[in-house]
Amino acid sequence: MSENTGDRVWSTEPAGERPPAGIDVNVPSVARIYDFLIGGKDNYAADRAVARKLIEVAPDLEHDAGAHRRILHRGVRFLVEQGIRQFVDIGSGLPTAQNTHQVAQALAPETTVVYVDNDPIVLAHGRALLAENERTTVITADLREPASILKNPDVLRLIDFDRPVALMLLGVIHHINDDEDPAGLLRTYLDALPSGSWLFLTHFLRSGPESERMEQVMQGSHKSGRFREREEIAAYLDGLETAEPGLVYIDLWRPEEPVDEATLSVTKRLVLGAVARKP
Ligand SMILES: C[S@@+](CC[C@H](N)C(=O)[O-])C[C@H]1O[C@@H](n2cnc3c(N)ncnc32)[C@H](O)[C@@H]1O
To answer: Which domains does the chain possess?
Structure first.
């Protein structure tokens, strides 16, 4: 079966697959909504209904959400070039083309990568992808419980916290609501990392009516999704040395080709990114 809305076919089930055990496909999930927006197949009608509402607010989202994966690729390459060989990618999302370990290990095969997500569907799909790779693992854990990640035996098997680590928090801190202390959580993670480690952060930016309406859709759907002011996001980088070009719209972060800021779509003005080193 399929729902056809304009130029995109919204299939009602991932091709030929049953949902993994324990996954409630009737409750929308951030991981699956995002999977749909970046062209994946591991999403269901409840997820696509939310995606559709977001696309109604910002129609270019349907085509521009992939920009978030592209900054991930550029940032991971940059971090490998800085000598980083250990990545903890929290809020990693469902596996897609060119994930963190593939990008990093293509440049430095010895690199170790731990994926962390609180949605069990990520583990269900990640396991198969990683079955052949002993330097990479995926765990189900919640960013809001740092000990469940920093003391997790699977994490400690691959990550030596006495050596520099890249902490990747792409598109996930904005799913921590204000009363859950995102800044305090970030500090806890950064305090656990040695000097020479890096934070790679992307975050929804409060910028105009679209950001407010998207926040309403997300909070209404899954009770998370905060679009914060630039100053609030910049404060997450306090005490770190932010690499050039600083905290910028994600397409402007070390683009491979020159990008004219004036041409950026609404969607591309809704997310800021930065990469910063712990001195
Ligand atoms: C928008 S996706 C980002 C995926 C990926 N980082 C990227 O940039 O392409 C956000 C992910 O964060 C996960 N997430 C949300 N809240 C989380 C939490 N408290 N702990 C761990 N993961 C969380 C969601 O399940 C989802 O997979």
So the answer is: 2-63 (no CATH), 65-212+226-277 (3.40.50.150)
For 39-99, the DSSP string reads: T-S---HHHHHHHHHHHHH-TTHHHHTTHHHHHHHHHHHHHHHTT--EEEEET--S--SS-
State yes or no: pLDDT of 47 exceeds 60: yes
Residue 6 has pLDDT above 50, yes or no: no
Structure letter (DSSP) for residue 260 = -
**262, 58 Cβ separation under 8 angstroms:** no
Distance in Å, CA 108 to ligand 1 centroid: 25
Query: Which pairing describes strands 8-11 and 86-90: parallel, antiparallel, or unpaired?
Result: unpaired
Helix or strand (DSSP H, E) at 37: helix 30-37
pLDDT per residue as tens digits for the range 66-108: 999 999 999 999 999 999 999 999 999 999 999 999 999 999 9
Q: Are 42 and 119 in contact (CB under 8 A)?
A: no
Average pLDDT over residues 234-246: 98
**Is-contact 129 160, C-beta < 8 A?**
no
Q: What is the pTM of this model?
A: 0.94
Q: How far is the CA of 126 from the centre of ligand 1 (A)?
A: 14
Using a 6 Å CB cutoff, which residues line ligand 1? 30-31, 34, 68-69, 72, 90-93, 117-119, 122, 142-144, 170-172, 175
Nearest CA to ligand 1 atom 24: 31
* Position 13 confidence tier, pLDDT thresholds 50, 70, 90: low
Instruction: Choose the residue to mutate in 152, 175, 201 for probing ligand 1, maximizing ligand atoms within 8 Å of C-beta.
Output: 175
Q: Which of 32, 118, 170 maximizes ligand 1 atoms within 8 Å of its Cβ, making it the mutation to test the pocket?
A: 118
